[in-house]
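Q: I'm writing a short methods note and want an example of a predicted protein-small molecule complex. Could you take the sequence and the SMILES for nicotinamide-adenine-dinucleotide and return the bound structure as tokens? Please keep the output block clean; save any remarks for afterwards.
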Amino acid sequence: MGFSACNITGLKTHLPGGGGRVTITVMQVTIIGTGFVGVVTAAVFAHFKNRVYGLDVDREKVKKLRLGEVPFYEPQLAELVRDGIKGRRLTFTSDYKEAVRNAGVIIIAVGTPSAPDGTADLKYVFQAVAALAPHLKEKAIVAIKSTVPPGTNEKATQLIKRVTKKKFFMASLPEFLKEGSAVTDTLKPDRVVIGTNDRWVADRLIWLHRPIGGKRIVVRPESAQMAKYAANAYLAQRITFINQIANLCERNNADVREVVDVIGADKRIGSHYWYPGLGYGGSCFPKDTKELAAYSRSVGEGDGLFVKLDELNERRIYTSMEKFERQVNGWEGKTVALLGLSFKPNTDDLREAPSVKIIPLLTNGRAKIVAYDPKAMPLAKKIFPYIFFTDDAYQAVAGADVTMLLTEWSELTHLRLGTIKRLMRGLWFIDTRNQYDPVKVRATGLSYIGIGRV
Ligand SMILES: NC(=O)c1ccc[n+]([C@@H]2O[C@H](COP(=O)([O-])OP(=O)(O)OC[C@H]3O[C@@H](n4cnc5c(N)ncnc54)[C@H](O)[C@@H]3O)[C@@H](O)[C@H]2O)c1
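A: Understood, no commentary inside the block.
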């Protein structure tokens, strides 16, 4: 075990004392849950020469990871995992004792899906806590990275105390990475948020993150947890807001992209993160917005804004599809080419992806579906064995009456429009990501339908 030093002067926190030069023995880090967040976290910490264990109860997943195979697509991740394994810094296991007994920091990154009432289902978090508790070493730090509501750390603390007399610390390390750029986001995040009320814990977690970029923000655990929900609900709200504006643009001659250029020039608003489309999807925004509404209700606060956000977003895809159906004179008997299936580019994640709702709607409308996605097809074939898949976008549009762009993968945003027109049987080009210039599309003879632009 080596030694290293870290200068943490100048960091503003709510904690008294500290802020000097800290020297700590290299810590073993264990990540519990090797899903999207867990594998990225494990691989990045291993990349920075830590001894890292990744633990998952899914033995098939562990078997693959041990061979250096990442069970989902995320740019740069497989190389990082293989490097870690080759350098003997990264080990995957399903054995809690092996992974926890020497760990200075244990990071919980298991899933927290929505329960039927909208609350975050914390059963995987508490299962993980119960399983790790008997193996904790003295003064281990158990940090929850999963998105959980305030109050979770206290419940976890009580669970562990029932099992062990050893001294341990609970902390929060909320995660802000984005699928599709998860490795870069983890190496160079905007901020590393450390939720703790203990100076010793803060110093160690700052030390652990020392090679990682971004601002360090040390706050109490409850603030860290609220901030994660607040950030996701705010981003979700931005999407819903611009979708409402897009609806209005379609009622006149305005173009939502031009509206975004204008409002984005205002520094208070900013030009980033305006994505009119079919609504927000993915594994986080829908569930975190629902949880924020449920949490608001549980503490007797108004949940109006968050409930409305969720409601508008749930409805969005259906109202959009009804509008498209009218525009193309019904789906029946039509062949629809779907370009892009994942909920966003550079990932094969289909959780809450528009495609997953659109495919049954089109099938019920008696359309034939031909689909192409650069990475998500293996998973999509399992969910939708009854639709057709092709090896590229041009094959998908050949003979189609309607082409519908669903995901802005870069290979799908620069298609040769003349070739598309020639290959298609019909004329409808529905651009749900506003990636194409309506004038150029129409110049080929195709009929353009976008979002918030006529
Ligand atoms: N995916 C994202 O983009 C993202 C971003 C920020 C935060 N988050 C949050 O991070 C958490 C994890 O999300 P994810 O997308 O990585 O989830 P995931 O579903 O991809 O992975 C969760 C993993 O945990 C494992 N697991 C479940 N119970 C376990 C247990 N008791 N012990 C060990 N392993 C167990 C599962 O087998 C699975 O592999 C969630 O709370 C999520 O809200 C996700």
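A: Remarks, as requested: The chain has a mean pLDDT of 95. Residues 254-449 form a domain with the Rossmann fold fold (CATH 3.40.50.720).
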